[in-house]
Amino acid sequence: MKKQNLVVVGGGSTYTIGMIMSLVAEKEQFPLKSITFYDTNAERQEKIAKATDIILREKYPELERFSYTTDKEEALTGADFVFVQIRTGGLAMREKDEQIPLRHGAVGQETCGPGGMAYGLRSIGDMIELVNDIREYAPEAWILNYTNPAAIVAEALRREFPEDKKLLNICDMPAAIMVSYAGILGKDVFDLVPEYFGLNHFGWFTSILDKDGNDHTETIKRAITEDGFMPEDAEIANDPSWIKTFKQVEKMLNDFPEYLPNTYLQYYLYPSDMVEKEDAENTRARQVINGREKRVHALADQIIADDTTENAELEVDIHGRYMIRVAASMAYNNGDIFIVMVENNGTIPNLPDDAMVEVPAMMTSRGPKPFAVGHIDTFYKGLIEGQLAYEKLVVDAYFENSYEKALQALTLNRTVVDAPRARKILDDMIDANKDFWPELHRSKQLVTNA
């Protein structure tokens, strides 16, 4: 089995140590020759990298090389796989993404609604530059992108790199939900086979099977509606915000019992409820800054100070394992099935062919081979088409520098659905993102009416 050279872009991320532990746990399925961290923030990366060096020394001694750098040529040259996890603007801008909509009575969330648009318009340019850099220094590398908001980023990359067949957009949220399904059933998550359709953070499980073909969907539904639904993944299981999110699945399933929903649908189906529950001065970003970020940095400091992992609580998370299993299936042509984002091209016949849909696919050395979903019913089609139009309009706004397209996007989004409020949010976000967004120009008609 050929050993791979892996580059992790965004090496200073708070998720990186979890990814490293996942690579250790999955080293038989995805053996590595080298790991390289690349980040534009040298100080942030150095602490995580120094802790990682100790972890790998103790838990992955067969790894031939570990390095970290802020030089993209040094990082990317010779890569077989590149895992991409960047956050343009950092958590400080995420907090603004969440606060601004809430102050106007709209959902404040990093990937949904106005927050997703703001984050997307910041991410697109950096992602395009990064893919161009990877193709310059590692033209044959697989790029697995899990930068949020994944739906908007995937649509932008589809337009910019239409012929790139080794660029895959992926999200771990369906897998995190399936971990909880596995807990209900007493099974390992990788023994479950999902049937699923939708867009990223906007989809439904139609069935949950096991590898013997047994259907466990109704068992899961009954368990959720009768006993409630709690996260099982170690990263989120003790997080009050995630516990509330998973609890909301019970309400969604009672209202719309046909399919098992992605947790993010709560923001689109119950936007007023979501606004009422949030505190603009203590949004999810602030909780991460005061919670996970501090915990991870303290963990890294402890490992560095001790020069060992003996006293450190290190955990493998589904975020890393899912990404690694996908990569392994492509590297070794395993044909395993995972939920990923692909260009529709008839997978869901009554949606546009150029939609970036999220569906199960067999992962091969030639890329994802999606399974046909078939026609979807009016309710789901209507919801998806509205969300898809919003995503496309956001990307239009980026490429066309169009204020009007951004305003249309926000007005259309189910978390806003009010043109005057959309305009106020957009104007505040333009001010907040002046160092990150492309300049958005108003049409003559909009200037006249402003």
From TrEMBL:
Names of required cofactors: NAD(+)
Sorted UniProt keywords: Glycosidase, Hydrolase, Manganese, Membrane, Metal-binding, NAD, Transmembrane, Transmembrane helix
Family, per entry: Belongs to the glycosyl hydrolase 4 family.
Name of the protein: 6-phospho-alpha-glucosidase
Domain Glycosyl hydrolase family 4 C-terminal: 196-416
Listed InterPro entries: GlycHydrolase_4_CS, Glyco_hydro_4, Glyco_hydro_4_C, Lactate_DH/Glyco_Ohase_4_C, NAD(P)-bd_dom_sf
Free-text comment on the cofactor: Binds 1 NAD(+) per subunit.
